[in-house]
Amino acid sequence: MKLFLFLTALIVAGATGVESCTPADRQALLDFKAALNEPYLGIFKSWSGNDCCSSWYGISCDSAGRVADINLRGESEDPIFERAGRSGYMTGKISPSICKLDSLTTLIIADWKGISGEIPPCISSLSKLRILDLVGNKITSVIPADIGKLQRLTVLNVADNSISDGIPASVVNLASLMHLDLRNNQITGGIPQDFGKLTMLSRAMLGRNQLTGTIPSSIAGLYRLADLDLSVNQISGSIPAELGSMPVLSTLNLDSNRLSGSIPASLLSNTGLNILNLSRNSLEGKLPDVFGSKTYFVGLDLSYNNLKGQIPKSLSSAAYIGHLDLSHNHLCGSIPTGWPFDHLEASSFSFNDCVW
């Protein structure tokens, strides 16, 4: 009899709809929603009823019925955006209630333009989190000091916000981090000297901040790093020659800083480096004559420095030079003839002392 009643209860539950996420997770989502205002698309209209795992916009769950992913992008090809004919706009803040979703692996709240407030410090308690993407909002305050606790985090993207203060020292403890994007904020202070501990890192985008100090030589130990952007900061000192020995580095942007000293020959002879921008610094000395048949630069910009001497003749042996800018230096001498100089603009060499 007891078994019959139990089975009957299951059948009734199935007919009326079993809750697909825990009441605690559902309430945490509702509290998160209550702190936000999305006036145009109506994406939160689906956030009703008990079935938050399969019918709530941007929410997905794991096999245990726990909320695992929040994916809310303000710029998307989703039909809801196409019908509205506009990108998203949302105001409010990210509620600390998000931290109650302790099975969360993905948290994307990106490109909503108007979300402000802080990154809840409790974010660092979400031990399963792999992706944290808050790009394109108006988030202020700081990156949580103990962000380094997120040992599974592979993506940390808080670009295009108004985040201030420094890069937390604990960032270097993110052992799984592959993509770091802090661009276009108001971050101050230096790059941690032990930045090279992030051995899984493939992209480090720190441009357009207010970073000071020097470039840590430990970065050269990041053998998976393909893209490094430190542009438009206040970084000083010399360029570590070790950067030229990085095996997969293909893009290096150090422009618009306060770098001094000479250009390491290893940078220009690194055959894997395709984009190199060192413009608008205080680099000096002669331009290393180290180009060869494997040199392949899509872009090479050394303009607005204090370089002297002649234009290296070895540039003529390069396999490819797509864009070259040596303007606004103190170079002197004739422009070599032949490839690649026969397809470069005269402006590539303008505003030097005596180039002809």
Automatic annotation (TrEMBL):
- Mind telling me which InterPro entries this protein's record contains? DNA_repair-toleration, Leu-rich_rpt, Leu-rich_rpt_typical-subtyp, LRR_dom_sf, LRR_N_plant-typ, LRR_R13L4/SHOC2-like
For this protein, the record's Pfam families field holds: LRR_1 (PF00560), LRR_14 (PF23598), LRR_8 (PF13855), LRRNT_2 (PF08263)
Q: What is this protein called?
A: Leucine-rich repeat-containing N-terminal plant-type domain-containing protein
Q: Which residues form the signal peptide?
A: 1-17
Q: Where is the Leucine-rich repeat-containing N-terminal plant-type domain?
A: 24-62
> What residues does the Disease resistance R13L4/SHOC-2-like LRR domain cover?
121-203
Q: Which UniProt keywords apply?
A: Leucine-rich repeat, Membrane, Repeat, Signal, Transmembrane, Transmembrane helix
Q: Where in the cell is it found?
A: Membrane
Query: GO terms for CC?
Result: membrane
